[in-house]
């Protein structure tokens, strides 16, 4: 009983008289800027650990109160102004993380969570510390290797369209265009009678489509027709185009109803 009273008196003396407290094995005084200075080279500092449900049962938590959530594997502190528990950064996938993890985030809410700026400030993306892409904070224009984009997509460099290969084996063969911008076409026609290709609709108004023949045999011809609407050719044109040589190209744009010819190259 006597020892217990001495312990109580000791802690009462520390609380009432100490300006700050240092806990260590070296006897070093606490740093003047800290009310509690804990140091060790062999042990850590362990704060209260509890489940999410237990954390939410804390009655009137103090602003800044900290706990470790064993369910979500991350540290939380209490925001008394917002009356909510906020997660500190963790590599674990916790639904309420406010930082973006390099391994991805779970529980993202579309329309609420975002990567970006909250003012008219450009958003820059870099590799090797060099700016590669910019989204203008004023206009929303995107610049690729262009610090100050002047149009919706401003690219300083070449643009390459990955081709989709199409092999024609029957007449009237339907080709789904959808999200495709470049068709490389071959035909198994071995006579002057050309195979026909029937184009489907585009995915969006203004979509550009390039059709290229890659056959080196002039006899292996094909014609372009439409499965949706009509290919609109210049005055005096016809409703189909014949591809006779490798490298023949047709340039089309989808207007929501029809494929409109905007250019040709090669021999037709």
Structure description:
A five-stranded mixed beta sheet has the order 11-13-15-18-19, with no helix packed on it. Strands 3-4-5-6 form a four-stranded mixed beta sheet. 8% of the residues lie in helices and 32% in strands. About 9% of the residues have low confidence. Among the domains are: 37 residues, no CATH class; 33 residues, no CATH class; 102 residues, Jelly Rolls (Sandwich). By secondary structure, it is mostly beta strands. The protein is elongated and about 95 Å long.
Compact description:
Helix content is 8%, strand content 32%. The protein has 268 residues and is mainly beta. Among the domains are: 2-38, no CATH class; 123-155, no CATH class; 164-265, Sandwich (Jelly Rolls).
Binned strand content: 25-35%
Please identify the top-level CATH class of the domain at 164-265.
Answer: Mainly Beta
Instruction: Write out the strand line-up for the largest beta sheet, numbering strands in chain order.
Output: 11-13-15-18-19
By CATH, the architecture of the domain at 164-265 is named Sandwich
H and E order: HEEEHEEEEEEEEEEEEEEEE
Largest sheet, in brief, is: 5 strands, mixed
What CATH calls the topology of the domain at 164-265 is Jelly Rolls
What overall form do the CA principal axes indicate? Answer: elongated
Number of helices: 2
Distance between the termini: 109 Å
The total count of strands amounts to 19
Structural class: mainly beta
| Portion in helices | under 10%
Overall average pLDDT: 79
Unreliable stretches (pLDDT < 50, length at least 5) are 8-17, 91-96, 232-240
What is the CA-based Rg, rounded?
35 Å
């Amino acid at each position: 009983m006597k020892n217990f009273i001495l312990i109580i008196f000791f802690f009462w003396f520390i609380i009432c008289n100490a300006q700050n407290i240092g806990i260590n094995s070296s006897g070093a005084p606490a740093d003047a800027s800290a009310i509690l200075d804990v140091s060790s080279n062999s042990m850590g500092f362990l704060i209260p650990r509890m489940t999410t449900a237990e954390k939410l049962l804390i009655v009137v938590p103090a602003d800044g109160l900290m706990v470790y959530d064993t369910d979500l594997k991350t540290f939380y502190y209490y925001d008394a102004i917002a009356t909510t528990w906020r997660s500190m950064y963790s590599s674990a996938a916790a639904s309420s993380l406010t930082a973006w993890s390099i391994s991805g985030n779970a529980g993202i809410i579309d329309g609420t969570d975002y990567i970006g700026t909250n003012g008219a400030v450009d958003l820059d993306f870099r590799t090797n510390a060099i700016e590669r892409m910019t989204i203008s904070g004023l206009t929303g224009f995107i610049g690729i290797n262009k610090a100050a984009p002047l149009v919706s997509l401003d690219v300083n460099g070449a643009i390459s369209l990955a081709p989709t290969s199409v092999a024609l084996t029957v007449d009237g063969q339907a080709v789904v265009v959808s999200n495709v911008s470049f068709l490389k076409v071959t035909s198994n026609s071995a006579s002057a009678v050309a195979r026909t290709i029937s184009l489907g609709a585009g995915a969006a108004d203004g979509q550009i489509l390039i059709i290229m023949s890659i056959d080196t045999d002039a006899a292996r011809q094909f014609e372009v027709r439409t499965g949706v609407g009509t290919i609109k050719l210049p005055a005096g044109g016809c409703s189909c185009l014949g591809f006779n040589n490798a490298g023949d190209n047709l340039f089309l744009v989808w207007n929501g109803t029809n494929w409109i010819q905007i250019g040709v190259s090669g021999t037709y």
